Amino acid sequence: MTGTSVETSGHAAHTASEMMSVAAARALRDGTSCFVGIGLPSTAANLARRGHAPNLTLIYESGALGAKPDSLPLSIGDGILAETADAVVGVPEVFNYWLQPGRIDVGFLSAAQLDRFGNINTTVIGGDYANPRVRLPGAGGAPEIAASCREVFIVVKQSRRSFVDKVDFVTSVGHGSGAGDRARLGLPGAGPTMVITDLGVFRPDPGTAELVLEQVHPGVTVQQVREATGWELAVASEVGTTTAPTAGELTALRALTGGPDGNDG
Amino acid sequence: MAEIVTLAEAVTELVNDGDQVALEGFTHLIPVAAGHEIIRRGRRDLTLVRMTPDIVYDQMIGAGCARKLVFSWGGNPGVGSLHRFRDAVQNAWPAPLELEEHSHAGMANRYVAGASGLPFAVMRGYTGTDLPSVTTTIKPITCPFTGERLTAVPAINPDVTVIHAQRADRAGNVQMWGLVGVQKEAVLAAGRSIVTVEEVTDELAPVPGQVVLPSWAVTAVAEVAGGAHPSYAQGYSDRDNTYYQEWDAISRDRATFENWLTEAVLA
Fold it and tell me: What is the ipTM of this complex?
């Protein structure tokens, strides 16, 4: 939570984190299925289901297919997920029967580090694998979510610590070393098609698969985004501005998170 | 047939120093009381296996039970990092911790292979990631029918698997429901198994979505009401989210952790 508040005419004041969650939620289309990662993705997916996408099917790796929680679960295995699900299945079934064959439209992930090709690190930072400076939780379901969902959205707070020139460890593959790499590796899904941060929205260039800044959030400059990026950032010829959160979106988000300073995942 | 015993008896008889031990439960039905009993019994040099080592493994690692961890996600769900786990990996405190690291899909398939009596499982996974370069139990394999390159992971067959379930009957048949994770596979893959339950009842009334482990597939059943706390047992208790949040501060500092261990587990 950055604590900075943005006032945009006609819209309620919001924080940068709230803008990120709202922009991420808007990316999810109604009637699709979404494999929901822990943290920020869960906030965004639940917000989408309460707003423009009431028929969004939420799939949690804990085995809840079609969960409809009425409050934001703290973990991916809270009881409310099983109690409201269309079906509850075992963990091997989630991965083998539902994810692996490519039945799920969108994988929604977060990252500790992300590079220009949308490769994700959630394993170790600094040092080497055996003696890391920081030991992170690890892979969880992400490598196969990133491989097998039809497309992947990534939501992450942006800084030079998270947007790095080279990830210290490839936990989950985005576009590998560039265009064509996923096909060469035999990864079935399209990979990351959108990255949403607290500063803007990025999409991979169709020719190079490198992330391109396409939108900044209200009050954010392209220069700020460049400064929070650890590589020479590609910027679209026309950079749009994200529509600020509506009062309705903010109300729904705060009902989920407990307010602008509440748990955002 | 499963014997109905006390938790202390089960752990004393069935968990030995140096064993490969799996405590399973995917956020729900985590056998935390059994983990604390293993700490109290002073077990050492364990290879701890668990898809999601969370608070209970943070506690067991901090207490010095573990030599090695086989896992796919080690964190405090919804809160952040596991500080005892990190201290063991980054600073070898209280002892060095060897890691064997997988993804969830890989771990789930390893248990399926173990439960199926097969040497390995085949899956699509890990391709292009750095995990095969640090984990020797991830290997490429070619499909003999199509020629497709796939990934093989070896079976996990723990010496002992420990789970928590809602109920057992007096014959030792075990019933669980809600998010049932990988527990059935983990029990069937193991040489021995301990199941703690919320209650032992005369009959197991059917529940939608239930998984039943027949008595003859289980070694020991122990009645431990609340044995999954701070996780939960659907139909019996709710997840204690405050505990997970408070664990962050308790576990951050070695001295605070050791005080907690003395007061909450060893006392």
Answer: 0.95
